[in-house]
Specification:
By secondary structure, the chain is of the alpha/beta class. The protein folds into two domains: about 200 residues, Alpha-Beta Complex (Spore Coat Polysaccharide Biosynthesis Protein SpsA, Chain A); about 80 residues, no CATH class. The protein is built from eleven helices and nine strands. Strands 1, 2, 3, 4, 5, 6, 7, 8 and 9 form a nine-stranded mixed β-sheet that branches. β1, α1 and β2 form a beta-alpha-beta unit. It is globular and about 60 Å long.
Length: about 300
């Protein structure tokens, strides 16, 4: 088993993550790979210290210059030597000491299964909640519309991860703003996915990250990217069966954000852009309804 950990300026959080990995109770070999992307804080020193203290369990990967999220993610998998890989970013951690053993047991009993993930807890400041709140999705169509896999909760077969890189070649898609979401969708298309309906991992939501931002334009860009990823997979693995629904989702999410945080001009420009691309969206009532809400908020009749 290889625990693949990508880090970048995670000094305040990294020790908690690594200690949660070391606390795992397993009857099989486990290696921890810490791959740092040229952090400017003390993250490399923390990684190096752990690797020196546990030379038989922890390996440290670094570089003299920043290679970027995508390359750092991939080189961690390529360095892995285990049959299985478990993922966790350096600012997240695991909250169940039996996480690995239970996931491996599940996958050993189900050889056709390519991935297993658990529920997780999300933490943001003083707030904490379960994720996903409802159903844990496992099939391809469900994952296209709502990817419920938390990165820190996932475990996969390493050989399938490498097949994903060969088949999808995500390095050719710099417009994709995340690396894990396309991988989970691919697993749903190419293998079976198992779930454990208990929270065993914790995802820390930082104020500013690729997926979280106080800037509404960045939030829209990330949501657009998620749908664009789904559109790519739908085209290649489902012959575009869900194209119209995905375009509708892409527009509705953006307009919902703009109806609350953007200007009326921004709202209309985005609506027109989506309608020009997909004329059938002209008939989508949500575009008009959200505009009315936007105007009511502007004149103070709606909060």
């Amino acid at each position: 088993m290889s625990i693949c950990v990508t880090t970048y300026n995670h000094a305040p959080y990294l020790e908690r993550a690594v200690e949660s990995f070391l606390a795992q109770k397993c009857d099989f070999g486990v290696e921890i790979i810490l791959s740092d992307d040229c952090s400017s804080d003390s993250t490399p020193d923390i990684c190096r210290s752990y690797a020196e203290r546990y030379p038989d369990r922890i390996r440290f990967i670094c570089s003299e210059k920043n290679v970027g999220m995508r390359a750092n993610y991939r080189r961690t998998f390529e360095a892995a030597r285990g049959e299985y890989v478990a993922l966790c970013d350096g600012d997240d951690w695991w909250c169940d000491e039996n996480k690995l053993s239970r996931q491996v047991a599940q996958m050993e009993l189900n050889k056709e299964c390519g991935m297993c993930y658990t529920r997780a807890r999300r933490v943001q400041g003083d707030r904490e909640w379960l994720y996903p709140v409802g159903e844990m999705y496992t099939d391809f169509e469900q994952m296209l519309f709502n990817n419920t896999v938390e990165n820190s909760s996932a475990m996969a077969r390493r050989d399938l991860v490498m097949r994903y890189y060969e088949e999808v070649q995500p390095e050719h898609h710099p417009e994709w703003l995340t690396d894990d979401a396309p991988m989970w969708i691919w697993f749903a298309a190419r293998s079976k996915i198992l779930t454990i309906d208990e929270p065993m991992a914790v995802h820390r939501l930082l104020p500013e990250s690729v997926s979280q931002s106080g800037n509404y334009q960045r939030r829209i860009a990330f949501c657009d990217s998620l749908v664009d990823i789904s559109l790519w997979f739908d085209e290649r693995y489902a012959e575009g069966k869900h194209r119209q629904r995905l375009w509708r989702k892409r527009m509705e999410v953006a307009l919902w954000v703009l109806s609350r945080d953007g200007s009326t001009v921004e709202y209309l420009k985005r609506w027109l852009q989506d309608v020009r691309r997909t004329p059938r969206l002209l008939l989508n009532a949500a575009g008009y309804g959200l505009l009315v809400k936007r105007l009511l908020r502007k004149i103070g009749l709606l909060k």
